[in-house]
Amino acid sequence: MNGYMMIGIVIMIIVLSIGMSIIKRNLFQSLYLSLNNENYEYFFNKVDSHIARALLPIYTREIMRLNAYMKTKEAQTVTEQFNKMMKMHLNQYQLVDLLTKAFSYYAINKDQKKCARIIKKMEETMDDAQCQKYRMYYEIVFEASIKYLEEIKQSLLIHRGKKRGYFEYLLAKSYLSKHDKESYEKYIQLAAEDYKTNVEQLETRIQIM
User: How far apart are CA 50 and CA 85, in angstroms?
Assistant: First the structure.
């Protein structure tokens, strides 16, 4: 094999590599956009296509599938997909991503039992600092804990926007557990304002931070 042929082969490999990268990027973007636009028929056809299976890592495809089920509010399908993914060989980043995503979904849907099981798994696999914010949410919202009152008040002093709104929401829930209706109504309204929504919609907009 002469030098010109070797150079030609190298160039061909580089071109193919660039081409595959572009196809992979475009495929991911089309799946992402179809999810955002709620074009689920296109999404499920595309995510199960031969090219998606060939180019996208299995975790990428399955977490996007889970996102789709969460958006379509198919509770049983979400649980089946979550259980399926928990049996996969996940690295630490993937496991944390999956657990936190599932916890947020079940928290919004007020499923205390599933949230409790996920908290236990978090405590086994995540460091305490990562786990604490989910534990705090769980204890305040599901167990009516008021032990975080002073900590949350301090957090209000340093945060703005949605993050402040999140702590206002937790503070409101804490006051509700104390049967302090006036303080509850004050902070739940402030939380809704920081989330740029109304009190009725706030529960579905809360993001654990």
Answer: 20
Both structure tokens of 107: 């928290």
Mean pLDDT of 15-24: 60
Report whether 148 contacts 167 (CB < 8 A). Answer: no
Instruction: List all residues 6 or more positions away from 120 whose beta carbon is below 8 Å from its beta carbon.
Output: none
Tens of pLDDT, residue by residue over 146-195, are 999 999 999 999 999 999 999 999 999 999 999 999 999 999 999 999 99
136 and 148 Cβ atoms separated by less than 8 Å? yes
Q: What pLDDT digit, counting tens, does each position of 124-139 carry?
A: 999 898 899 999 999 9
pTM: 0.85
The answer to whether 191 touches 202, Cβ cutoff 8 Å, is: yes
Integer CA distances (angstroms), 43 to 39, 71, 127, in order: 6, 12, 35
- What is the separation of C-alpha 146 from the centre of its chain, rounded to a whole number of angstroms? 26
Tokens of residue 43, six digits: 């999404």
Distance separating alpha carbons of residues 127 and 135, to the nearest angstrom: 12
DSSP secondary-structure letter at 38?
T
Whole-angstrom distance, CA of residue 180 vs CA of residue 172: 9
Contact 202, 195 (CB under 8 A): yes
